[in-house]
């Protein structure tokens, strides 16, 4: 039905059924095989999302079959005609596997509810002849016996999960005979205790204010220098643009530091004696992985053009080649050129 969002949701649901040992792992392998049999951009994207969730379990119980699945992903990456964005998703999945699927544990903490000897694993396969999808359940129908069916469901649920009845109904009536006599005295005690609490709160608040550590503002920009150094070393120590982009994406950036990464790539490019396509490919990959980087380079283009008269000729040529590469590969929208106004009053010899 061309509803990719719903398809991914169903795939994730099947993955978690497998993780919880409700469905057998054979079903997971069949789902992946079906998705990758004739790979398209959408089917590979769904398969990647599915493997991210179920990969940790399959690595434990069937590592050899998991290796075969990733060999299929590798051949798709190198041979299939798929979109760049989907290729990046496959590469991220391989990195996810190298990290041991640490962000997608088999069963998240707090959800391991059923003992292993009590679990019933349903061995259902996609090629079973007796499968009934029951599509009619996707259509809403008014239930004439709704209340009765809800009571049956509550009984079944309580039988499995244990009852959650509230037994606090009768306690309010007991001891009612003596409640009136002590009302006035209790009120006075409550007022005194409330005033004491206010005094304690004020003293506690002042003590907390004194004990609170002062926030230190670093005006030396040491953290910024360290970040620039990390970005520079990540770029210069890489053998290929793919490795460089991967290292840059792994750097933990605080909000607002994305622009600094974009500026550093441009600065590294400008410092070279001649233009290297290496830097253009880094910028292209970043822009196509996430549109956040595209907006960052859009701002960098405007900033570079505004200060274009400050660059030396060699730097200017490299920066021009860099942005030409991003425009030529559709990594940047052509709307960035709106900052260019070619009139005698608004241009310099550099621009």
From TrEMBL:
It comes from the Eukaryota. This is Pre-mRNA-splicing factor cwc22. It comes from Coemansia helicoidea. The gene is CWC22.
């Amino acid at each position: 039905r061309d509803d990719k969002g719903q398809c991914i949701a169903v795939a994730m649901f099947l993955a978690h059924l497998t993780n919880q040992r409700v469905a057998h792992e054979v079903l997971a392998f069949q789902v992946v095989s079906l998705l990758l049999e004739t790979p398209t951009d959408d089917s590979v994207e769904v398969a990647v999302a599915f493997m991210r969730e179920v990969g940790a379990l399959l690595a434990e119980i069937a590592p050899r079959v998991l290796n075969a699945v990733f060999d299929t992903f590798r051949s798709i990456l190198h041979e299939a005609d798929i979109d760049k964005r989907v290729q990046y998703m496959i590469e991220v999945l391989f990195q996810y596997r190298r990290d041991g699927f640490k962000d997608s544990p088999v069963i998240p903490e707090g959800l391991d509810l059923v003992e292993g000897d009590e679990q019933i694993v349903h061995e259902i396969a996609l090629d079973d002849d007796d499968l009934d999808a029951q599509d009619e359940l996707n259509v809403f129908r008014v239930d004439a016996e709704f209340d009765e069916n809800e009571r049956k469901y509550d009984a079944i649920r309580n039988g499995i999960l244990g009852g959650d009845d509230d037994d606090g109904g009768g306690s309010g009536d007991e001891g009612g005979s003596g409640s009136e006599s002590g009302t006035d005295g209790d009120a006075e005690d409550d007022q005194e205790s409330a005033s004491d609490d206010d005094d304690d709160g004020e003293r506690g608040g002042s003590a907390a204010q004194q004990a609170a550590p002062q926030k230190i503002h670093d005006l030396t920009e040491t953290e910024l220098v360290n970040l620039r150094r990390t970005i520079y070393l990540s770029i210069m120590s890489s053998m290929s643009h793919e490795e460089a982009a991967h290292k840059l994406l792994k750097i933990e950036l605080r909000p607002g530091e994305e622009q600094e990464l974009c500026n550093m790539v441009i600065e590294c490019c400008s410092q070279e004696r001649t233009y290297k396509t290496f830097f253009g490919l880094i910028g292209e990959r970043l822009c196509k992985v996430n549109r956040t980087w595209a907006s960052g380079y859009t701002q960098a283009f405007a900033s570079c053009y505004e200060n274009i008269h400050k660059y030396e000729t060699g730097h200017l040529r490299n920066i021009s080649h860099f942005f030409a590469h991003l425009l030529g590969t559709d990594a940047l929208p052509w709307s960035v050129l709106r900052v260019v106004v070619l009139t005698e009053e608004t241009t310099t010899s550099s621009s």
